[in-house]
Amino acid sequence: MVSMEMYELGAKSSVIREIFEFGKKRAAEIGKENVYDYSLGNPSVPAPEKVNETIRKLTQELSPCELHGYTSAVGDNATRTAIAENLNARFGTNFTMNNLYMTCGAAASLCITFRALTEKDDEVIIFAPYFPEYKVFISAAGAKPVEVKCKAEDLTIDLEAFEKAITPNTKAVVLNSPNNPSGVVVSEEIVKGLCAILEKKQKEYGKSIFLVSDEPYRELVYGDVEVPYLTKYYDNTIVCYSFSKSLSLPGDRIGYILVPNEVENFELIYKSVCGAGRSLGYVCAPSMMQFVVRECVGMTGDISAYKMNRDILLEAFEECGFKTAKPDGAFYLFMKSPVDSAEEFCESAKKYDLLLVPSDSFGFPGYVRISYCVSTEMIERSLPKFKELAKEYNLI
Ligand code: PLP
């Protein structure tokens, strides 16, 4: 009849979407200004003005057929060259356009990468808390997601647990830093430890294990925080990037996959990426957005607004007695629920029209995610509500 697996995926909307829909319904009842929706990761900082300028310029300078036509499947050469040069200038790498494959954002980058790398029964390790779609993407490629929990005390990677989870079937490991949902940035020390384990296991099993760096939040860090560039630490690294967050363009679907020359069997891997993109029907990434990226790569919107939001919330949470993971990047706070059931806590928060996401779908129960990519003004209006919530739980 139909694929029941696909039916179930389509019929069951994500927890985050459900909360978002609830928020819209509630706003119709009591007014938008009285609902404090912290559910979605939609950037609240506008795209840099250069993005709009470039679009205007492109519409004037290029013929419609050039602007809206197909590019080659791997992407526009000048765009890929601009990205390679930008990365080389920032990270001292040596990439060229031939290391890059343009995609429709990080989701596509990940789906293509998993499809390219894995065969049936291969395992892909993900660290909990994780972006819930990883499990969908990995399973869609026919592989098996294997979860490794971060340390409860600080949500950093538990290297011992990681090493134990690697088996002869492990094909890849996904690292997401800065992290959605925790906001944690993986330190250089942990990166080095993780890569040393991978090197050891590659030797032990006589096979390649790939490190997939999912990094849509790379530029979204606050203060003096380094996000190590993983290709410099481990040869078999594949980078899945997106401009959704850095350029605030999530609806325009643009990103890339980077396969460094150092990857074992570069030709084989790069061509498999091309094949996976083809078999998944991507054809090419949006042309106009590729041309925009050619001009705007390396820029971000004014992310100082995110820092301000984070700092206001952190200060308020400290006063309220709420505990969060060290949030160095992305635009999420991961708050410990004062009771075991985060769902129960989120239901209580709803009474104050605070919409928070329980952490169960991130594979790490007992927390809530707060997306602070919202207006600072909404945050300020919501602070008395957080106080009331804290009082209900006798935290203040
Ligand atoms: N990976 C992570 C960790 C994310 O948080 C997201 C989106 O929120 C994605 C991938 C997908 O991003 P994109 O919009 O570029 O497909």
CATH superfamily of the largest domain: Type I PLP-dependent aspartate aminotransferase-like (Major domain)
Strand content: 5-15%
- The number of distinct structural domains comes to 2
- According to DSSP, the number of beta strands is 12
CATH class value of the largest domain: Alpha Beta
Which overall shape is indicated by the principal axes computed on the Cα atoms? globular
Unique ligands: pyridoxal-5'-phosphate
With strands numbered from the N-terminus, the spatial order across the biggest sheet is 2-8-7-6-5-3-4
- What structural class results from the helix and strand content? alpha/beta
CATH topology of the largest domain: Aspartate Aminotransferase, domain 2
Give the SSE string: HHEHHHEHEHEHEHEEEHHHEHEEEH
CATH architecture assignment of the largest domain: 3-Layer(aba) Sandwich
Q: What is the count of DSSP helices, taking H or I runs of 4+ residues?
A: 14
Residue stretches low in confidence (pLDDT < 50, at least 5 long) are: none
In whole angstroms, the N-to-C terminal distance is 56 Å
Rounded to the nearest angstrom, the radius of gyration is 21 Å
Helix content: 40-55%
- What can be said about the biggest beta sheet? 7 strands, mixed
At a glance:
With 396 residues, the protein is an alpha/beta fold. The chain contains 14 helices and twelve strands.
Fold and architecture overview:
The protein is α/β, with parallel strands linked by helices and 396 residues long. It has two domains: 4-48 and 302-392, Aspartate Aminotransferase, domain 1, CATH 3.90.1150.10; 51-296, Aspartate Aminotransferase, domain 2, CATH 3.40.640. Helices cover 43% and strands 13% of the residues. It contains 14 helices and twelve strands. The protein has helices at 4-11, 15-30, 49-61, 64-68, 77-91, 105-117, 133-140, 159-165, 188-205, 266-279, 287-296, 304-320, 342-350, 376-392; strands spanning 36-37, 100-103, 123-128, 144-149, 170-175, 210-214, 237-242, 255-258, 332-336, 354-355, 357-358, 367-371. Strands 2-8-7-6-5-3-4 form a seven-stranded mixed sheet, with helices on both faces. A three-stranded antiparallel sheet has the order 9-12-11. Strands 1-10 form a two-stranded parallel ribbon. Strand 5, helix 9 and strand 6 (210-214) form a beta-alpha-beta unit. Helix 5 packs parallel to helix 11 (287-296), helix 6 packs parallel to helix 7 and helix 6 packs across helix 10. The longest helix is centred in the middle third of the chain and has 18 residues, at 188-205. 45% of the residues are buried. The model has no long low-confidence stretch (mean pLDDT 96). It binds pyridoxal-5'-phosphate. Pyridoxal-5'-phosphate binds at residues 41, 105-107, 131, 176, 180, 214, 216, 242, 244, 250, 255.
